[in-house]
Amino acid sequence: MSLTHKAAASLVRHTARQQHLPVVRQTAALVRQQQQQQQRSYADSSTSSNVSHANFHSPFHRGKGDRPDTTVIPSFKKYRAGNEQGNKVFQYFMIGSLGGLSALGAKDTVQNFLVNMSASADVLAQAKVEIDLASIPIGKNVIVKWRGKPVFIRHRTEDEIKDAEDTEWQKLRDPQPDSDRVQKPEWLIMLGVCTHLGCVPIGEAGDFGGWFCPCHGSHYDISGRARKGPAPLNLEIPAYEFTGEEAVVIGT
Length: 252
Ligand code: FES
Prior knowledge:
Layout: H1 3-19, H2 22-55, H3 84-117, H4 121-126, E1 129-132, E2 141-146, E3 149-155, H5 158-166, E4 187-191, E5 202-203, E6 209-213, E7 218-221, E8 226-228, E9 240-244, E10 247-250
Antiparallel strand pairs: 1-10, 2-3, 3-4, 5-6, 6-7, 7-8, 9-10
The chain binds FE2/S2 (inorganic) cluster.
């Protein structure tokens, strides 16, 4: 019952007692009747609330009395499919779907990684360089840049070829016959990087008529083989291919 109703009823009763008026008495009876009806409606609503609460079964409710036991693993049996076979089919479907999605994601990740790591078009364009040999006279050196490194191209004379072939290569520190270092005897093509510490040797210099590295005094012969000084290996021969009588492509 609200405070307003209580105050109104009390006021009416007090007035009736004081003045003994029949109209006031009737009004007080009416107010009492309304109070009783209101109390009955409250009682009805609380009863229906208790009934609906009593019908609710929490999956955690295994404790004593009204207190739920939250340490109990709830049972969801009533949400399962009717038969065990149906459950397994659903599980296999979910595992297969998630596995397929994971495989697709992994494939995309690896593919993107490989695409990013592969050489771009401008890098691939620099991977090969074509040289016109007709412009290099006999007995002259030319240096070209390939993949950021110098490449020596020597158009050797007859005497230089003979000298390179007659050398006792078995006694050299990096034994290698001249025939293993050239595809055509008149063309010597090799990287211009000293095998000691990477300086660029000077052509037509040194004690063997080939190349000399001024950094620490290594001497190479006319076949690019290490003959004196600290260089441990011969100058490296890159991959190349003759594409014509007077054309070569370095970097095949
Ligand atoms: S780098 Fe050429 S001799 Fe040392």
